[in-house]
Write a structure and sequence with these properties.
Blueprint: H1 2-14, H2 31-48, H3 54-63, H4 76-85, E1 87-89, E2 92-97, H5 99-104, H6 107-115, H7 134-144, E3 150-158, E4 161-171
Antiparallel strand pairs: 1-2, 2-4, 3-4
Length: 175
């Protein structure tokens, strides 16, 4: 698959075709390739996340004291409730309550907040998110085609257990 992308990129860059004088129609990537890219993007996001566990969260909160962060887009009470709702496993963020995010933030603000945990793609799956600007629209559009393994109205109480709980999200791959 990597070789086919490289060959495609080279043919586009250098105007090459598979046979002299012939024009080859380039088709869009297959669904399997698209899902593979989505999985790779999620892995990259998780790897680059600033907060992967409770210790990272404490270091982040301490080091960013006095500095505006995406967490501060939530009201003080909502920020406290969100932080208290976070569940981590050895794979990263596994669950959180979304009600305050939905009630207080736009889609792009939620995206930035969840990016701290490598879960930015989850923002668009939260029902009722406000779309108020171009960034919100772009996130909504990009996320419409990307499959997620997150479970709305479920909670990850311990590893490998998504349990029904309203207004929570169980991050399937991390639970």
């Amino acid at each position: 698959m990597k070789i086919s992308y490289l060959a495609f990129a080279c043919s586009v860059l250098f105007g090459l075709s598979s046979s002299a004088g012939a024009h080859e129609e380039i088709s869009s990537p297959s669904q399997a390739e698209g899902e593979s890219r989505d999985l790779l993007q999620r892995e990259i996001s998780t790897h680059l996340a600033q907060i992967k566990n409770k210790e990272d969260l404490q270091v982040y909160l301490t080091s960013m004291r006095g500095i505006q962060t995406p967490l501060d887009t939530l009201s003080p009470g909502a920020k406290r409730r969100f932080i208290e709702s976070l569940v981590f496993t050895d794979r990263g963020l596994a669950s959180f309550t979304y009600v305050d995010i939905r009630n207080e933030l736009t889609l792009s603000e939620a995206y930035k907040l969840l990016a701290l945990f490598g879960r930015e793609a989850t923002a668009a799956s939260i029902r009722g998110m406000r779309v108020e600007n171009e960034a919100d629209r772009l996130i909504s559009q990009a996320s419409a085609e990307a499959p997620l393994n997150d479970y709305m109205d479920y909670w990850c109480r311990t590893t490998a257990t998504c349990t029904k709980k309203l207004e929570d999200i169980c991050v399937g791959p991390n639970c």
